[in-house]
Amino acid sequence: MAVAARLASLLILLALWQLAATLADTRTLPSPSAVAAFVLREIQTGGMLFNVGVTLARVAVSFVIAMSLGLVLGVLLGRSRVADRALDTPLLVVLNTPALVITVLAYVWLGLTETAAIVAVALNKLPNVAVIMREGARSLDPGLEEMARTYRFDRRTWIAHVLVPQLQPFAVAAARSGISLAWKIVLVVELIGRPNGVGFAINYYFQLFDVTAVIGYSLVFMTVMLAIDTLVLQPLDAHVRRWR
Amino acid sequence: MRMSDAGADPAAVLTARIARKVYRSARSEPVEAVRDLAFAIAPGEVVCLIGPSGAGKTTTLRILLGLDRDYEGSVEPDPRGGAGIGMVFQDPRLLPWRTVEQNVRLALPRERRGRDLDALFEHLALTPWRGRFPGALSLGMQRRVALARALADDPRLLILDEPFVSLDDAAAASLRGLVVDTVDRLGMSVLMVTHNVAEALEIADRLLLLSPRPASLVATVPLALPRRERGRAFAEATRRDLARLYPGVIAD
């Protein structure tokens, strides 16, 4: 039923788009069929797969870096008052720095390189992960802590069966919000300083004023990211909550 | 009771001498929670600690378990060194993301985690629930799991914190029956904290009556009549006597 409703709303949206495009009859609002034709052509020439692949690789690498550093930092901040006092302000500063500023500075300081692009994306995402994980580490159940101490849980047991299960929902939430943030920022980063990727392609077709291509690339990339969320992250979320 | 009396019995499974426990906080006046509370528990003895709500019973338990070390006095043997205490917390404090069986096994030292627990689960009627998550169980069943966890490593002393509170009468009676049965069968000592006098009169060998805060010992009441021979008349008569003698602790 839910799937049918989603499908119906999608079809209605497509029909409205087609209707608007037909009525407007202008280059700036291409019809769904024109966009689909472009996507097919671009897939055949190989440009689509190459650019989406490059962008996905950037998302993946910066995602892994930001998640691992953010997890460690967040747990540290949540568990240690000293660390939290010392690092809270820098964290707030980075959290409130516009993505564009971080990106420009990364390119200025590290050059127009792949490293700079990855660092920019990771740095944009890291504070979010850290803040979510800090919440998780702060909300550990004190009753379970006492139980674990009473029963003299060793460190390994405590980590695997008391700490990690309490942090898991926060880690999955951080991953889900993090990946949507990362893929939006990665396009900006590519647009500014990379010679390939979806962000580069969108900028290229924008210069040519080819709206069909811009929409085509955005739709394909959005579909890929939604698929990752639905096929990987949501099942993961359901898995860590299975005991509820 | 003088402080020195409590330490006299070398056979005791637990000897506590808490001279003073004060909660200090930057924002408010210090609160004295316990003063001059000393008692010992003999092997096989069932002791009930009775006191009004907020008297410092939980504080006392935390000290006995080694969770609170900021007090004047001593607890022997040192709870940090593995004193053979099995603890049943009031809120069962199970790991909700682990199964009933895992909850019980994880509380065992690593080398004994694989031991045979079939008899224990069977005795507590938990066998059909071994693979379930605690969230699928009623509070009464969750307390049974907590009891199984406390018993799994053959403790010398079982500590129960208000184990029958917020259960319906049937669930409370069945859990009470299980506890009595377990104690009779395995012969460990029990320290049960409660504010329910009737409950204590049903299973205790000795009552420790606590004053309102700061908790100190008002009286020690031995109950000589064997558990099986106690009936309604005994419970009511004893309760009336206690209420007359210690009106501050036991309501009529």
From TrEMBL, chain A:
Residues 52-232 form the ABC transmembrane type-1 domain. Residues 1-20 form the signal peptide. It is found in: Cell membrane. Keywords: Cell membrane, Membrane, Signal, Transmembrane, Transmembrane helix, Transport. SUPFAM superfamilies: MetI-like. It is a multi-pass membrane protein. The chain crosses the membrane at residues 48-77, 89-110, 214-236. Its main location: membrane. GO terms for cellular component: plasma membrane. GO terms for biological process: transmembrane transport. Belongs to the binding-protein-dependent transport system permease family. This is ABC transporter permease. It comes from Methylobacterium oxalidis.
UniProtKB/TrEMBL annotation, chain B:
The keyword Nucleotide-binding applies. Residues 13-237 form the ABC transporter domain. InterPro entries: AAA+_ATPase, ABC_transporter-like_ATP-bd, ABC_transporter-like_CS, ABC_transporter_ATP-bind, P-loop_NTPase. It comes from the Bacteria. PROSITE patterns: ABC_TRANSPORTER_1, ABC_TRANSPORTER_2. GO terms for molecular function: ATP binding; ATP hydrolysis activity. Pfam families: ABC_tran (PF00005). Keywords: ATP-binding, Nucleotide-binding, Transport. Belongs to the ABC transporter superfamily. This is ABC transporter ATP-binding protein. It comes from Methylobacterium oxalidis.
